Amino acid sequence: MAKLTDVQLQKISQWVQEGASLSVIQGKLASEYGISMTFLDVRLLVDDLNLTLQEKEEPKKENDVNTIAEDAPPPSLDNMAPTQSASGVKVEVDAINRPGTMVSGNVTFSDGQLADWYLDREGRPGLAPRTPGYRPTQSDIMDFQVKLDAALRQAGY
How do the domains of the chain map onto residue ranges? Predict the structure, then answer.
């Protein structure tokens, strides 16, 4: 991970206070400072700085079938619904982790292509497209990172 200056760390704190998501912070570090960090590195950096990301509340619909009652038990990996976005990126967490991984799953990108994702035992992320040579669009990657973060939080990671 790149060594950041005090000015850069203050800027990251400012972005978090302004409500920036991890993927937005990752993009700003790359565009404004030329610092390339993985999504996980940015997440760990924010945690190391003791910063709290602002969760944006989505307006609740009265008849929303996805609403969980306050007294409902927390979701388990066995009954967890895939996380999907308007762009069509769908992230699923495996009920049983693949050998050699901390957590694993699969993703369906907006063009219908499938890939397997994982975090290895040392927390390093990996993505293995099922079609050799396939590269998802940048917007799909950004959406995947956000959806993966949400799915992992939902699963208790």
Answer: 6-48, 83-154
